Amino acid sequence: MNWILLIIAGLFEVAFATCLGKAKTATGNASLFWYTAFLVCLIISMSLLVKVTRELPIGTAYAVWTGIGAVGTVLIGIFVFNEPAHFWRLLFLTTLIISLVGLKFVSQ
Length: 108
What we know:
Layout: H1 2-25, H2 28-52, H3 58-79, H4 87-106
Helix pairs in contact: 1-2, 1-3, 3-4
């Protein structure tokens, strides 16, 4: 169950990074909405991270949490914000994913 919560926490990290990116380009009430969504996602993500670190090793949990956030944010950048998706970027993104899966398998 802790691994599922950790994945959800990582997805909320992607969400708060996405909200921050959207808030950067928004104006008026839309900007307020995106900053509010950023804070809500941040609180949920951090709360779940704190909860899972009671059972999982902090080093592993934090690495997986940031890794999910990094991978997800890069993918959102590519698909939503039209950032480049060249070979080297995708290669290193793939190695990050492999490393995260490896951490899960070697952790108790």
